[in-house]
Write a structure and sequence with these properties.
Blueprint (H helix, E strand, L loop, with lengths): L2 H22 L3 H21 L9 H21 L3 H15 L6 H20 L3 H15 L5 H18 L2 H15 L2 H6 L1 H17 L4 H17 L3 H16 L1
Helix pairs in contact: 1-2, 1-3, 2-3, 3-4, 4-5, 5-6, 6-7, 7-8, 8-10, 10-11, 11-12
């Protein structure tokens, strides 16, 4: 092993240790300080990578760059410094594109975008929130973890409702229903599926005025609730079905 290779390994090891300390730090000040220290240490490793012919390791190192910027952003967000939080989350999003391009990349992408969207919601800037929600829609569909994918789709659907983006409301519901109709997902998450079916039925009834389809999804929700012996929930949905039929 050459001296540069040893230095490279030391920088990577040190950066990991510093990053772990940053994740365990209690105060925002210490989180930011340690995360910045991680960035400086990782930068040294990245600069050495081409010299030791280890460019293929740079995407892996960029994961720590992304995570460190996200940590800094979270600290700023908790301090209510939204401008700095946006800046750091934006940097994190950019560096994440230069990582390994695997599922972890997609997970980080959804997380970072959801934070930027949340800031837009907090500021009641629905144009900005909608912009990030549309990006989450693309990334969430790439997630292999269908539970996480569904949770993101539910979040962005609510934003699209506020921004009155009918096209993406429909797209979000379509993806949600696709997930919920998967046998394995239904088996493992029946209550969540019933909630989604019920929510979709409400949208079909009140917004799209598709009463027949709404009844169909409400009925699916009732069947699931009854199968779970959740009689109260089943009764509430049954009453909604009866109200639609009386119209």
């Amino acid at each position: 092993m050459t001296s540069n290779e040893q230095r490279f390994n030391n920088y990577v090891t040190d950066a990991m240790a510093i990053y772990n300390r940053a994740t365990e730090a209690k105060s925002s000040k210490n989180i930011i300080r340690l995360a910045n220290k991680t960035l400086k240490t990782i930068e040294e490793a990245i600069n050495l990578a081409p010299i030791i012919k280890a460019k293929e390791k740079i995407p892996y190192l960029n994961e720590f760059v992304t995570l460190s910027h996200a940590l800094i952003a979270e600290a700023h967000y908790n301090n209510k410094d939204l401008k700095s939080a946006i800046e750091s989350f934006t940097i994190a999003q950019k560096t994440n594109k230069n990582t390994l391009g695997n599922q972890e990349t997609n997970i980080r992408e959804c997380y970072i975008l959801s934070k930027l969207m949340a800031i837009g919601v907090l500021q009641e800037n629905w144009r900005i929130a909608d912009k990030f929600a549309q990006k989450i829609y693309i990334s969430a569909k790439k997630l292999e973890n269908t539970v996480k994918s569904l949770l993101y789709l539910i979040k962005i659907k609510d934003v699209f409702i506020e921004s009155k983006n009918l096209d993406f409301i429909n797209k979000s519901y379509t993806e949600m229903i696709k997930i919920c109709k998967k046998k394995e997902f239904l088996k493992e998450n029946p209550k969540k599926v019933a909630e989604v079916f019920s929510d979709y039925a409400k949208y079909l009834n009140l917004v799209l005025k598709k009463q027949k389809t709404a009844i169909n999804y409400y009925s699916k929700a009732v069947d699931i609730y009854e199968g779970l012996n959740l009689k109260k929930e089943a009764l509430i949905i049954t009453e909604k079905i009866e109200k639609i039929k009386k119209k």
